[in-house]
Input
Amino acid sequence: MLMKIMKWIHSAAHDSATQPVFIKGDISMPDLLTLMLAQKGTLLADGATGTNLFNMGLMSGDAPEMWNEEHPEKIAALYKGAVDAGSDIFLTNSFGANASRLKLHDAGHRAFELSKIAAEIGREVADAAGSTVIVAGSVGPTGEIMEPVGTLKHADAVEMFHETAAGLKAGGADIAWLETISAAEEFRAAAEGFALADMAWVGTMSFDTAGRTMMGVTSKDMAALVASLPNPPVAFGANCGTGASDLLRTVQGFVATGTEIPIVAKGNAGIPKYHDGHIHYDGTPELMADYAALARDSGATIIGGCCGTMPDHLRLMREALDTRPRQSAPTLDAIVSALGPFSSDSDGTDGGGPPARRKRGGRSRAA
Amino acid sequence: MSEEDDIILSELDDEELVQQMFDDLYDGLKEEIEEGVNILLERGWAPYDILTKALVGGMTIVGADFRDGILFVPEVLLAANAMKGGMFILKPLLAETGAPRVGKMVIGTVKGDIHDIGKNLVAMMMEGAGFEVVDLGINNPVENYLEAMEAEGPDIVGMSALLTTTMPYMKVVIDTMVEKGIRDDYIVLVGGAPLNEEFGKAIGADAYCRDAAVAVETAKEFVARKHNQMSA
Output
């Protein structure tokens, strides 16, 4: 597979004087992200969406997706901020553009449309960039709990994800990018939605609870989940969560499973603090540059930030990835000394952590 | 499911039964919890004792293992659902017998936030700890909180937000309470994944609660403090 890609890039590079031109719509061709990875080895993704939009005047409680229509110039500026800072990939402003979440703003019926506009603005910015930049259509969680624990039915979730993905595709997104997922059921439903929309995709989960997702999924669980899908993602990994240290431990957990699927690291720029009416994340650009290099050394090949990561952070991350020599994977101690302590002693993959107070499944259900 | 694993609840003595109910809550077995509650009622237990000794006792264990990263949201939701089954039987009886009230809480996710998983957990765990909970649901503008404070007279106002884009709205609610001169009449607790203690302080909340178990502990502590102040 890799040889095929390399050959393809080789011939594509010959067709163009300056850089490979990727022709869309050829089904025998691998997706753009796979091609770029094969070409560059490591890719820089983007940073925060919400934090950046706040700085542009988004009011708390309002749906960021409405700005695709009301303030397209600001959304273009958001994307351009990442591109100008050196990102190879940016995510569209469509995180909450699913029927379940838009319902809250009386726009439940507009998931397709708002996703499409988010991608259209992205397409324009990427096409004007002067080099290949991937438009990744952001797809966030539905916000509901799926059956059997919750009430959202699998088929309904698939339909919502399909609708959002179809909108992103219609708007010109190169790939769908599922993020901040905590439940395996929802990850599976999204994969099915992407298959229906016939889109290549990337999927990341948020490991924010003692090294696991809110629903208890470990890095090892996620690697197994990804491998079990009929249409596996082009890359998978972790985004958001607690801090940069935890995120790198999760990345190393993925690597330890021996997965051959590229790994994504998209951590927050420190932790949120409140200053004079707005949220500020305390991670400096210098810290995020260290994080980017350590993420690469840990085995991630697609590296970006999440909440609090601004263009200034991205610039130094770009520089770090371009200039710092590759090192062997950092030990957990080295991660702590560079980026700060972990939020929990164990991430659930080492059999460590405190013992349960009671044994689960203590008895069978009485007939 | 082999037969030897089957446990006949009615054959257990009181102490064994309560221990078994702890296990059944931990496993989220709703029907078994309902059966256990009914057996204790038949044996003449006061509804309040069943609530505090069997249900709250069991949920405290669930809460501690949730806090320590041993149990996760799916298990806790199942446990809380089992407890709700027991509470459904006990609630009318508690009202009839005039059982003491631990405290009352009004809770909701703030404007723009649909993510109510954490809020629901807190509501369930608070009920599990004997609090009366008025759930305002999702997407609450400041007016909803103010109306509920007026109508319900809670001890505690709880606000939840999952998103960076919605968490600052908590400050809007607290600022409005300050403007109206009612801030100090209530205990304000905030929570949600992107928050932290410093954020809670900065926006003027009484406390940030990391998870549902911590919310219960914090609520108990603040209500006790409030009662002490009133009797002093």
In short: The domain at 9-96 of chain B is CATH 1.10.1240.10 (Methyltransferase, Methionine Synthase (B12-binding Domains); Chain A, domain 1). Chain B is about 55% helix and 10% strand. Chain B has two domains: 9-96, 104-231. Chain B touches chain A through 57 residues (CB under 8 Å).
